[in-house]
TrEMBL record:
The keyword Lyase does not apply. Belongs to the inorganic phosphate transporter (PiT) (TC 2.A.20) family. The chain crosses the membrane at residues 6-29, 41-63, 75-95, 131-153, 192-214, 226-247, 259-277, 283-304, 365-389. InterPro entries: Phos_transporter. Pfam families: PHO4. GO terms for cellular component: membrane. Keywords: Membrane, Phosphate transport, Transmembrane, Transmembrane helix, Transport. This is Phosphate transporter. Potential transporter for phosphate.
Amino acid sequence: MVEILLVVGVGVAMFVGFNIGGSSTGVAFGPAVGSGVLSKVTAGVLMSIFFLAGGAIVGPNVVSTMGGDIVPEQHFSLAASVGILFFVGGALLVANSFGVPASTSMTAVSSIVGLGMAVGDVNWDVLGRIVAWWIVAPVLAFWIGGVIGRYIYPWLDARFALESSDGPLLTIDRSRSIPRPALGPGTTGRELVGSVVILAIACYSAFSAGASNVANAVAPLVGSGALSMTAGVVVACSAVAVGAFTIARRTLDTVGSDLTDLPLLAALIVATVASSLTTFLSYIGIPVSLALSAIMCIVGLGWGRATRVTTIPQAVRREKEVPVTTRALTIEEEEKKPRAIGEEEPEDVLDASDLYDPAATGRVIALWIFTPGSAVTLSYLFFTAIFTLV
């Protein structure tokens, strides 16, 4: 019976990891694939490598938190661990059916809390610290994006506009006795440097995804003692690799094509900010949503860019109306040199195409709230019923 439960548990954990690989690969490598820097196969290879690195180096910190700090390890029986993973996998399935990337970390933590409430043993101090960071991290991402959008983004856009030429970035020069790499036809040094930056940030995002998401797939099994930490990391990363080479192809297409709405430079800034926050929080053992930080950074970046139409004194005295919008990142200026804060007009911002759909964003946020809430409720009811019957 134990062996059957273990096989089922590993199977469900791999299902969770498979879905994580599908969604995280698109988030991490979508900009690189969309700009032509990488093929989908190469993206899958790099995702597998750097997700494993993040999962092995930083991931155990989050596994320890979710597998024993929120609810003591003695409550993680193999059956309870399998039940928790079913809730996480089910939440992913529901969210995917709505086309919304659910916060796997929030759902997993909520399912574990449901178990703890059922047995009457939850470390509320640890849980309070986690929930506090769930609130602080998106707010922090918004304001970091806002500051960059208002004071830095236009200058970066003017100096480091990322454009790609047709054909390969690099070729092999065989005109000499020793073949050596050379720039491809039409490739400039600036384009090569930009491509390297895109690749580095994509790998960093994959590392961050591994640091935060390994625990979501295997923390209950590690907490129950059914899997060792090393075995858990291997199981999760193997499943993610399968997802990176299969279902991730669709998310790579989606994120790559969406770059017409979200400029490549903005996407790289968002990836850097969100990945840095996620890696830091994973290092201190906090399970957090990479996607939520990324979306709030997008909103903050666009909002900060839009507020450049007025100076702070003008805003305080209300001398000039500020259009609160995130549609400002796609502005195409006739002159590449950015204008000073206060020199742009509101209509310049409002004429830009939409960066995001407010209705869709509301749907995403609503499901982010609903999914963990329903997970903790259903988990509590399920485990209460089970322990009552036992």
